[in-house]
Design a protein that fits this description.
112 residues; mainly alpha; Rossmann fold; two-stranded parallel ribbon; 4 helices
């Protein structure tokens, strides 16, 4: 939703293969279908990613590196605010992990 969806829509309009990395399969698939319908670009795909989980980030990056021949643009747009204090299963504060550590790790893993 929001800025991320607008960026994905614009990339798809430019005929780019566009990977939506989403926490929610249902919301992500709905966005994929909407973007495909609006742009006519069938190369819009969903991959699950929770940037608050470093294990999820590692699995996502591994799959992208394995499945994609190249990656030209990365838009780190995930973020949360206003959540109650919580610790992830990996021992990290949830907001910090989601907004900073996950995107930082993802970027570094995809640099190749």
């Amino acid at each position: 939703s929001g800025i991320g969806k607008c960026v994905a829509m614009d990339l798809a309009r430019r005929n780019a293969r566009t990977i939506l990395a989403c926490r929610s399969r249902e919301r992500g698939q709905a966005a994929v279908e909407e973007i495909r319908a609006a742009t006519g670009n069938p190369a819009v795909v969903l991959r699950l990613l929770d940037t608050g989980s470093l294990a999820s980030v590692r699995a996502f990056a591994s799959a992208v590196l394995r499945e994609e021949s190249r990656l030209d643009v990365l838009v780190n747009n995930a973020g949360v605010t206003g959540l109650p204090f919580a610790i992830t299963s990996e021992g990290l504060e949830q907001t910090f992990a989601t907004n900073y550590l996950g995107p930082f790790l993802l970027t570094n893993l995809l640099l190749g």
